[in-house]
UniProtKB/TrEMBL annotation:
Pfam families: ATP_bind_3. It catalyses: cytidine(34) in tRNA(Ile2) + L-lysine + ATP = lysidine(34) in tRNA(Ile2) + AMP + diphosphate + H(+). It is an enzyme of class 6 (ligase). One of its GO terms (molecular function) is ATP binding. This is tRNA(Ile)-lysidine synthetase. Residues 30-239 form the tRNA(Ile)-lysidine/2-thiocytidine synthase N-terminal domain.
């Protein structure tokens, strides 16, 4: 007789909650993404009970808010929203309902068949972000559980991320890592990098959550569309798992089981689903642990092979690359470097060549298997907005490779990853990168000055550099010039690395007045857990000889803001 699943105990949840603590102090307010289902309902109850029973413990969150996003895509959507509100109020939790304003406020239109899952997901998280802003919450807790981890891993495997598997499901992740920057200010908004997503229930299977709701008498709703395989790939996988690996012919529109079985065999983990799906759960857990081990190894490699390079670029020697033979480690180094140097939102799939196996393989082949003495080595791009340039390194300096120049004594061959040059032709040359790299920030500054703000004003430039303007320290002549509408402050690109330069344009003066050109990489970006604090200094002392003397404004600070570490 199979024993009935147990409800999640207090001690179990305490351990799980502590496991997903962000790398910053707990905020005052924590938000729970509440869909009304058993997962989020159990999470809402467990979180509220834990925090209320430990109100005397310092440093824990003091306030819990429930956030529900109504897609309006089902007939029962409004009813589900009302039931979420009733459950939250019954638990004594502040609740907020948000309805997605399709086709307005810069939201897309109602998604059509084939794009429902991705469009709804992005809209849901943007709305959750806005809800966090309105409730002053910097942490969002989601009810993902062990079964979700298996579904997510299988989805990624089906979409081509065979070696990636379950690596995406972490207990705690920075918002920007999962979703890029979804603040209301778009790509110029830095708030996304301050937000954290936690998943306290990731180690618990679905039946333990259902048992918790049953034992505590918690009402929940069931989203029937979750079991319609014709809607999304995830739903097809969910039904296939629930049916223990059996599938109707009508379900094969989204899920080709033969392809999935082949990709599972490629993992070389002894997974055989011919007799059922039970072997998947321990295998996916082992896959997640293996991915975590690879991440730790890559942390160690990157932290111990530091070469100074201009801010926003990453420099690595060919000799170091040659010492790495594990294909998973090679692949992870490439993805970590892409995410670091790309101009796409940090952590987004676009910044990681959409995790396309062919693109990643192409990069690995080019930078690992090159002959440093060859005469035809050229820079290349393989996606992600990153340019890979062959360089010759000597001490703290490097030079770009000239065809046939070779490597001299005491020199090393290496690769420099940097932001890809904006395209000279095509639609992006006319609109995208032009708007991205030349930005008039005058309206943003003036609106804050007129509202009486005197604190720091932050702008994220090109998804890479955080520009901080001290509003109280702006020189009076500049302040008067921009408030009167005559002058403008712009961000424009400089150097081959496309760093931001802050300039002022004044009427009747053809030349721009340069206000600030200096850029640096802050220490926190390389906070590897396995190196000593005094070793951080070598990341700060970045060698770079500007084309001209740097201009520094005391009221402006420019820092490269993309972590090389996992979070």
């Amino acid at each position: 007789m199979v024993p009935r699943p147990r409800a999640i105990s207090r001690d179990e949840f305490i351990r799980a909650f502590r496991l997903c603590k962000p790398l910053v102090p707990w905020p005052e307010t924590i938000a729970i993404g509440n869909s009304g289902g058993p997962d989020s309902t159990a999470l809402l109850f467990l979180t509220r009970r834990y925090l209320s029973e430990n109100a005397h413990v310092p440093s824990l969150p003091r306030r819990v808010v429930s956030l529900h996003v109504n897609h309006g895509l089902q007939e029962a959507s409004d009813d589900m929203a009302q039931r979420c509100m009733k459950t939250a109020k019954a638990l004594g939790v502040e609740h907020h309902n948000f309805k997605i304003p399709w086709s307005s406020e810069n939201y897309p239109g109602i998604p059509e068949e084939g794009a429902v899952e991705d469009t709804a997901r992005k809209a849901r998280f943007r709305m959750l972000f806005e809800g966090m802003t309105k409730t002053n919450a910097n942490v969002l807790a989601l009810g993902h559980h062990a079964n979700d981890q298996v579904e997510t891993a299988l989805m990624r495997i089906m979409k081509g991320s065979t070696a990636d598997g379950a690596s995406g499901m972490k207990h705690c992740r920075r918002w920007g890592m999962n979703f890029g920057y979804f603040g209301t200010g778009g790509p110029m908004d830095y708030e996304g990098m301050r937000r954290w997503i936690i998943r306290p229930l990731l180690t618990f299977p679905k039946d333990r959550l259902l048992a918790t709701c049953e034992e505590e008498g918690l009402p929940y709703v069931t989203d029937l569309s979750n079991f319609q395989p014709e809607v999304t790939l995830r739903n097809a996988i969910r039904k296939w798992l629930a049916n223990n690996g059996k599938q109707d012919e009508s379900d094969q529109v989204y899920l080709n089981v033969d392809i999935l079985k082949k990709k599972l065999e490629d993992l070389d983990m002894g997974i055989n689903v011919s007799a059922g799906t039970a072997s998947l759960y321990p295998a996916i857990s082992a896959l997640a642990l293996r991915a975590d081990d690879v991440d730790h190894e890559v942390d160690f490699i990157l932290s111990r092979n530091t070469i100074r390079a201009p801010p926003s670029t990453y420099l690595i020697t060919h000799r170091m690359l040659q010492s790495i033979e594990n294909p998973e480690v090679q692949r992870t180094i490439v993805l970590r470097t892409l995410r670091y140097a790309s101009f796409h939102p940090w952590g987004s799939l676009a910044a990681q060549v959409n995790r396309r196996a062919n693109s990643i393989f192409q990069i690995v082949e080019k930078i690992w298997n090159v002959n440093p003495l060859a005469a035809n080595i050229r820079p290349f791009c393989a996606g992600g907005g990153v340019l890979w340039s062959p360089v010759i390194i000597k001490g703290d300096t490097f030079r770009f490779v000239n065809p046939g120049s070779g490597v001299h004594e005491q020199e090393k061959f290496g690769w420099l990853a940097s932001r890809q040059n904006p395209p000279k032709h095509g639609p992006m040359a006319e609109v995208g990168d032009k708007d991205r790299l030349r930005v008039n920030i005058t309206p943003r500054i003036v609106s804050r000055l007129e509202a009486g703000f005197s604190s720091m004003f932050e702008i994220l430039y090109d998804n890479r550099f955080l520009i901080t303007v001290n509003l109280s320290e702006i020189p009076s002549r500049i302040k008067e010039g921009i408030k009167n509408g005559g002058s403008e402050i712009w961000l424009v690109p400089q150097t081959r690395w496309f760093w931001p330069k802050i300039v002022m344009k004044a009427p009747g003066i053809p030349d721009e007045l340069i206000l600030h050109t200096a850029a640096q990489s802050p220490r926190k970006l390389v906070n590897f857990p396995n190196i000593d604090a005094n070793e951080f200094d070598k990341w700060q002392k970045i060698y770079w000889r500007p084309y001209e003397k740097e201009v520094v404004a005391s009221w402006i600070d420019v820092n490269f803001e993309r972590p090389l570490t996992r979070l």
